[in-house]
Amino acid sequence: MDTLLLQSLAAGLGVALMCGTLGCFVSWLRLSYFGDTIGHAALLGVALGLLLDIAPGSAVIAVSLLLAAALAFLQRERSLSADTMLGVLAHGSLALGLVLLAVMQVTVDVQAYLFGDILAASEGDTAVIYAVAALVLALLAYHWRGLMMMVLSADVASVEGVNVPRLRLLLALAIALVVAVSIKLVGMLLVTSLLIIPAASARPFARTPAAMAVLATLAAALAVAGGLSASFAWDLPAGPAIILAALALFTLSFCLTRRAWR
Question: Sign of torsion, CA 128 12 177 108?
Fold first, then answer.
């Protein structure tokens, strides 16, 4: 039991490491619905993986990255609003995945993909998570100045020589990759919560963007540790318990800093 808890905690802290900082950009640029869209596409990735006889995890990552690239391209289309395109692709990919699974007549534990199972994380899963975390954090650090300018004003960033379309594409791909590798642990319905809630909890206490990123990562790590502890203590589903722990931290943050939210 101790080994299982430590393995799950290690995997969860890896997810917290990449979701904390990246979640700040999701919050600043209002991309929460984008994360949900990628999460909904996970089931399509699972179905295609089974259809093409490849590992479902690899298929989920491939579909997520392709969808992120498609969304980044379609954002240049002015005839449809961004939220409309996200809604079309989110529900369309989810419906297509369900139809493919029904046509193939295969038995899939859909609940495992909806809510995840962090207790089933293997050493290989943990290694992948930390590799993705290192890649995403390095990407954000390298492009930090350009990303900050884009957050403040995309037009000003363009005038200053920042390649805004490329940065948007890189950020979309980073979010897609993080969501895809995190789904196995916290599920497609909950993964976006780990991007949004810790960042929201950290916002009132941060004086700089970098400080908010650090505090959001800490909040995500505390949520993982608290959720896993509650799961083991009271036999709760681990994924939802982690999100509830994050929600408890957000509630505490809100109560302590009500004026900062006004």
Answer: positive
CA pair distance 254, 10, nearest whole angstrom: 28
Q: What is the pTM of this model?
A: 0.88
Residue 243, Cβ density class (10 Å: 0-12 exposed, 13-18 middle, ≥19 buried): buried
Distance in angstroms (rounded) separating the CA atoms of residues 97 and 110:
11
Q: State how far the Cα of 214 lies from the Cα of 30, in Å rounded to an integer.
A: 19
Q: At what angle do helices 32-52 and 191-202 cross, to 10 degrees?
A: 160
Phi, psi of 53 (to 5 degrees): 60, 50
Residue 157's contacts (CB-CB under 8 Å, 6 or more residues apart) are 146, 149, 150, 164, 167
Q: Where are the domains of the chain?
A: 2-185
| 204-262 pLDDT, tens digit each | 898 899 999 999 999 999 999 999 999 888 888 888 899 999 999 999 988 888 765 55
> What end-to-end distance do the CA atoms of the chain give, in Å?
45
Q: State which CATH number among 3.50.50.60, 1.10.3470.10, 1.20.120.330, 1.20.1630.10 fits the domain covering 2-185.
A: 1.10.3470.10
